[in-house]
Amino acid sequence: MLRSPLQWYDAYLFDLDxxxxxxxxxxxxxxxxxxELRARGRTVKFLSNNATKDxxxxxxxxxxxxxxxxxxxxANTVVTTTQWLxxxxxxxxxxxxxxxxxxxxxxEARFRLTEDPAEVDIVVASYDRAFDYxxxxxxxxxxxxxxxxxxxETNPDRYCPFPGGRGEPDCAAITAAIxxxxxxxxxxxxxxxxxxxxxxxxxxxxxxxxRCLMVGDRLMTDIQMxxxxxxxxxxxxxxxxxxxxxxAREERSRPTYVVERIDHLLPTLAPGGGA
Length: 275
Ligand SMILES: [Mg+2]
Hints:
GO terms for molecular function: hydrolase activity. By secondary structure, this protein is an alpha/beta fold.
């Protein structure tokens, strides 16, 4: 089942949690891979569904682990959610179930954030480690009682992978709580597999999707986005998805490559040769 690329790509797109790092540690092989890609002048971008940090905070986190990355090479759901709301619902009043970096970005984009359910136009569900019954009640009142607001989410991830096989409940759990009590469905999801994430990451770069490799640890988000975009994809087995998950999918929904370590993405130069 394991399969490494035999070729170099022009551009490499990397998920972060479970792909580049777990908790506060870079995963094995990341430094070697990045050094090789840089030496060959490849385009490298990072894209995360996690909205608990903004790109500047991710830049700092990566630098703290020894990986220097320009902030403009990092995109996440703080960026896609803000861009989508600016494009489609400028001036909307938002109730945001999300952490400070998301709230700050939305305020800076001139949205009004409110906790008064009678005024909420859009409920934004996200990964919020301070989620509680009070917030669920506000969302419920805004959507179900006042019949005014609709629901969007930053990302569809069920949990965020942590070291030692652990994890933290992610945005999908909060979206599901709101859907369960209101009976409404979330209308838009701004993270992978949405192509909006790809646009945010590649904005300005005119790249042939056939020359890009998307690398991630989740089939349903990272790999699905690549397949939808006509890109090659590589699943790293350092986060959520397993070989059994790959085998459970139809052939056309499987990643192009499956590797145990991220530096196994370095092309094997001859059949049977080591990466
Ligand atoms: Mg991940």
